[in-house]
Amino acid sequence: MSDGPVPVAVVTDSTASLPAAWAADAAPAVVRLTVVPLRLLAGTLVAGDDEPGAAEAVENAAARGERLTTARPAPAQFAAVYQAAADSGARAVLSVHVSGLLSGTVSSAALAAAAAPVPVLVLDSRTIGSGLGLVVLAALAAARAGRDLDAVAAAAGETAEQVGSFFAVDRPDALLAGGRLPAAELAAGGAAGTGDETPRLVSRTVLRMSAGRIAAVGRVRTWASAARLLAGAAAELAATLPSPPVVVVDHVAAAERAAALADRLAADVPQAGWVPVVAAGTAIRIHTGLGMLGVSVAPVPAVG
Questions:
Q1: What's the rounded Cα separation, in Å, for the pair 29 and 116?
Q2: Alpha carbon separation from 202 to 191, 195, 217 (Å, rounded)
Q3: Does pTM top 0.85 for this prediction?
Q4: What value does the mean pLDDT take over residues 218-231?
Q5: Going edge to edge, which strands form the sheet with 245-251?
Q6: CA–CA gap between residue 11 and residue 120 (Å, rounded)
Q7: Quick one: pLDDT at residue 273?
Q8: What gap in Å lies between CA 227 and CA 101, rounded to an integer?
Q9: Tell me: the pLDDT tens digits for 112-130?
Q10: CA separation for the pair 74, 295 (Å, rounded)
């Protein structure tokens, strides 16, 4: 490591669920975070995840029954971001993204990284949503502590290895249709012992990220049962971590349920302290549908 801080910029994509407090930059001259938007496809609409009116257009297309999907950012989008980071004084970039088994985003980033004006490391987080947000948090903590590129990547990679993400959806249709949840996996997941499963009445599917893929945990009748399953899984994982955990709740148009889950987790996992709640972006909404409720757990980033 050099005598002074080595400015490492951090780049992620719009599948990351990031509380605003994490994205706020306490040292703008040294560290920057840039979120590259995925492309939203809904009927005839093609728009960036960050474009004004895009979320409303997606909802209108969904109401008309049109097919919704997403596409990776083009390599040119990453190239522009890497150039902007260099122009602002960054000497290196860590680009950390949604699981490569769910999206081609890491491939686009890698293509752009090869021609970037500063060194760029591209990291496959093997997760998504608030799980990806926790990996980004670890990268930011290391970058803001003045670590070099390898150390920032190592901090993010360590969190990626330990993070656990669980989420529930009303219907898994879009995940099945897009191949992100194999039908055989859903069938194998069955109903995971929550006490109220009746196959003909099942209407909530609880899932988790596992080795970069989506895996089934169980199926239940009610959102209350889904929340119990999510809270139990998060608390169980938190108890195994070597340091105090960070716990985050994310949701799609389910703010009230998310707030209740956060309150429950604050009580069940008191060592986590504050449990932030964040609304997931439109790219995630397209694949989970409305009502998604999720929770992610990882150790507090170690940057000492």
A1: 20
A2: 9, 12, 13
A3: yes
A4: 93
A5: 213-220, 204-210, 164-169, 293-299, 245-251, 277-279
A6: 10
A7: 86
A8: 26
A9: 999 999 999 999 999 999 9
A10: 29
